[in-house]
């Protein structure tokens, strides 16, 4: 009887968590960014940077993670997967197809406050350059970003 109850509970968890079964979705990316925005508003950007750098489970879930850049300078303030880019301005460094997507992120954040940007990026799960779409949202003077790889 315990086995049936445990199995049923596990099935409910898996059904309620599509990110586990099929990879993260656009909804997952939006939700992660919105959690980050709420944290920045409540506790400030320094607390958000600590959470990102510590790979806090609310902000780093496999290939779905949040990073942060300064809106005015483009400097990466926190990145859980590639900490070597923190402190760098990569605004005009193109992706594998020559697209200056970071410039697009900053321009979109400045003009509209939030939205989606498509580009090519190295997937930490596969190690390959893959198509990615990232949800961005401005909060105060920073931009929070979380993206998903297109399957």
Automatic annotation (TrEMBL):
The keyword Signal applies. Residues 26-103 form the Single Cache domain. It is a multi-pass membrane protein. Gene3D superfamilies: PAS domain. Pfam families: sCache_2 (PF17200). InterPro entries: sCache_2 (IPR033480). It is found in: Cell membrane. Keywords: Cell membrane, Membrane, Signal, Transmembrane, Transmembrane helix. Residues 1-21 form the signal peptide. This is Cache domain-containing protein. It comes from Massilia phyllostachyos.
